[in-house]
Structure formats: C-alpha cells, structure tokens
Amino acid sequence: xxxxxxxxxxxxxxxxxxxxxxxxxxxxxxxxxxxxxxxxxxxxxxxxxxxxxxxxxxxxxxxxxxxxxxxxxxxxxxxxxxxxxxxxxxxxxxxxxxxxxxxxxxxxxxxxxxxxxxxxxxxxxxxxxxxxxxxxxxxxxxxxxxxxxxxxxxxxxxxxxxxxxxxxxxxxxxxxxxxxxxxxxxxxxxxxxxxxxxxxxxxxxxxxxxxxxxxxxxxxxxxxxxxxxxxxxxxxxxxxxxxxxxxxxxxxxxxxxxxxxxxxxxxxxxxxxxxxxxxxxxxxxxxxxxxxxxxxxxxxxxxxxxxxxxxxxxxxxxxxxxxxxxxxxxxxxxxxxxxxxxxxxxxxxxx
Length: 351
Hints:
Helices cover 50% and strands 20% of the residues. It is built from 13 helices and ten strands. Helix 6 runs antiparallel to helix 8, helix 6 crosses helix 10 and helix 6 (190-211) crosses helix 12 (299-328).
C-alpha cells in the first residue's frame, strides 16, 4: 500500500469510526477495525457508505476484529465510541496500542480527554479530534454521509520524548487525514476548540431530542430558531467567561451552516431513538460545571439539561423494562401467555 507506514486502529465502527476509517482505508492506509455488534456484517460484507459528497463507496476485505487480542498493535488509534463508555474502553485502548501510540478521541463534549487520561498508560499520547461532519449509521456496516468531514486536532498530554513534540504529532495526524482527502488542521488550544464545537452540540443535540425534530424543522419555526440562537449565545458567553473567548458571530455562522445542510438528526437524537444513554455528562454537565465555577450561569442550557436528564432516565428505563418483559415472555405455563401479550404490546408501543 502506498500509505501504509502507519498502522491505524479504529475502535468502534459506527458512524464516526466507520466514516473516517473508510476514508483512510480507501486512501491506502493500513486500517484495522475493532467492532462489536457490527463485526459479523462487516467481516462478511465490508462497509458501504452512501455519501452526498463521494457517492456510493464500498470497502471490501475489511481488516475487522471482534476481540482486541486478535488485533495487531496500532501506531494511531481513533476512538469512535461514545464518551459514556470511556471507563470500560480504556483497557481495550491500552491493549490495541503500539508503544508511544497516538490516541485520537473522536468524541463530543468537554474534558473527555481529562477523564480518559488517568485510565491510560503514561506512554501513550492523547489527542482530541473534533469532527465537523454530518454522518449517520443506517444499519450494521452501512453509513450515510450527509455533509462535511473536517477535523481539528488538539494535543492533550503524553510522554516527553526528546525528538517528538506535540506540534509534530498534531501535524503528522493532520497529514493522515489530508492524505485521505479530509480537511484537517492542528489547533493550538484543545479546550478552546471543544468550547467552539459545543456551541453547535449543546443547542442542536439537545433540542432535536426535546422537540423531537430535525435541524430543518428547528430552522423553519421562529420560536425554535430563536431558542437555538439563545442557547448558542449562552455557550459563547460561558466559554468566554471560562477563559476561552469566542466571537458572538459564531452563533449566526453555525446557524447559517446548518440551514445550508440537508436535514440532519445529530448523534444524541439517534441515541435517544435507539434507547441508548445520551452523552449528557460530556456535553452538558462538564461545561455547566466549568461556567458555574466562575460565578456565571447558563440558565437556558441548565433548563435544557434538566429536561434531557428526565427524558434520558425514562427512555433508558423503558428500554430496560421492555427487555425484561421480552425475556420473561419465554417463561413456561399459562402465566407466560399473559406476559407474552404484555411484551407484544410493549414492543408495539416502542415501535
């Protein structure tokens, strides 16, 4: 392969990991995917991407693994899993990493690297990777790329070794993405970059769940559009108060960008729809706590967070109850018949 000097590992083959892994692999890099539920399908059929930018892209003969012990050690590891599972995934990262590997955290929110750092070997370099992309997982091994794809890389921490500097690592990481046709740049301040992305994430992720609407529906209603902007401006003010100044014009720029994109459902909405825990700690709790420590407040963000906490608790509880009902439905005897009927009713309601 022309670009196989660096072995790249993708941990998690959902929308984010699948998209960037596919792009790197089709550019000729030596890419290895560590998968869970996606593994049987991807191992047998590969990845398929429907993209508004690249057309239909297929990746066959994927180097896929269900067990990290079968995966070769990788020089670069792209973490495409949810921040809610970082404590569990840390030992997997350590096992998949080559000596002095670079771990790129492709997650939303604030302080995700700080939470992950104590769980990883000190010999690993830890980087944040902000993904400006609209992409969704449609089915196992099937990805829909709506728009964009840019990445911003920031250095968090790592070993001090003489010939390697954080800047050189960032530039090498950006070069990998650039070789795959993805716009990429190194940013001097990772926390500043994360606050910038939170302006979008805090508003659109939460409001699509709360209002059960995509980005175009939010755009087409004056009240929801006003609320989007108000929340964005609170995040801008909170970031500035926390020592990471952002221009107030960013809110209108992000809204204009969203308006010019196809209708989109952010990752938090998809987690809600699939009854998975939402990434509320990284996207809401961490920035709210950082702002509160300055004596400032973001009341609309706080209200949105409280509403999402209620929705998340009910949503995950309902999923658990439905699972229990379906499991119990296999019990023998007449009692089981009634339980099966209840389970069918619950399943129909979920659908």
